[in-house]
Every structure is written in structure tokens, then in C-alpha cells.
């Protein structure tokens, strides 16, 4: 279980101690959740020393789903990005087993005609890592042939298809600035619940109102329960437009799954946001 980030202003002093030095932020987040989306790497390849710090702050079984830089996926569109890819792979090497999957998020314009490029790119990747692809072109959701072709490309290299479930967000008009911003920026695609591998990954986006977020994730509770009973090991990321309560929502989702599958390990006990007092 995890969130879209490990530090967020609305969490400071409320869920997480504040202030926290950079070398303690991921460690403290990891007392709440045991996975996190590595979104920061989309904007720039981190220094290797930064990644070494991430590794020091987390246990080997902590899961980071690390996004490839946009220079590879969006600017070069997987073509001629060998140097950028080498730099990225070298930078994240200290994560070791914490790199649960490398996340290839493709732009909305990357469609069925580009599947040959994706197939060639995936075949050239080192076998050291697992890979997961997120697509946003509507044809992959609306056209069965395009969907099947993509599934075959991914299955050929053992890669997963990451669904970004925004159905709840778009179910009714936005009611806050954060929701209005999400309406503009997030993809409007159907919900997809099929897993291709034994390690499926879900990105779920709810609403700022907790009751709407919880109601919207009901289908996922059943799907994740089924996957666990099949022997799969899913990773679930909970988002809301403002993410103010994402930490507690992630733990609530986990609790609902454990109520159905009690053998799932509990999440860690969170560190208190404030130090204990004598009175």
C-alpha cells in the first residue's frame, strides 16, 4: 500500500513530524505505508547519492515503483534514448530489491501505431528489473484489437499494465479547486481490472470527500482480494485530488482487504507526528 509521494505539506505536523530533514522523510513515511510511487524521477534523473539515501531509509522489502524520466518516454518517445536510460539505470541501482518495478508512463498520444516502438524498447531493457507500462490512449481501452496487441507486447517480456482508475473522479462535477485541476490534467479512461503478471499495480484516484473515495474503491477491494487468493502480490496506490488524507486512506484500504484476507501482513505502526510529552 502506498501514496503518490512520501512528503506532502498537508501531512506535516498532522501525520508526519515537522520539520523533518530530507534524510528522514522517506523513513518516516515508511512507518505508514510499505510502497510509494517514484514520481520525482519523471522530472529528472536523481543523483546516485540521493538514491543511496532512499535505500538507507527503507527496508529491502519496501516497494518503490520508479517512473522513467519524461526525456525518455515523452520527449524521445522511447526512440534514441540510450544515454538517458543508462544514466537513469545507473542512478537507481542502489535501490536493489526496493525497485519493485520500473514504471513506463506513456503520453496520451502514444497509440496502437507506436506498439512496435514499445516492443523494441522493452526487449532491449535489462532483465534486472520488472517493468510496468501505463498507457492513456483511448484506443487501448475502447478497441479490443488494440487492447489485445498491447497485452501481447507486455506479456512477451513479462511486463505489467498499470491501470490509472479515474472513474470516481469523473463520476460527478468537481467541487474543489484540486478536483477542478485534476479534471483538466488526469486521463478519462475506463476502469481496467485485468492483471497480466503475479505483481499487478493499481493507481486509484478518488475525490477529496472521503466517502466518495471509499465508495469508488469498492470494486478494487474485491479484485485485490481475488488476486491475493490467487497467489498474486499486488501493489495499490491511493490518490485523491488534494492528497490531504491519502496516508490514512491507504491504510483504510489495506484494513478493508485484511478483513477479507487476514493472512495479509499488517502495515507498520506509524510514528507519532508529535513527540510524547510528560503531561
UniProtKB/TrEMBL annotation:
InterPro entries xref list: DUF72, UPF0759_sf
Residue intervals passing through the bilayer: none
Domain of life, per lineage: Bacteria
UniProt protein name: DUF72 domain-containing protein
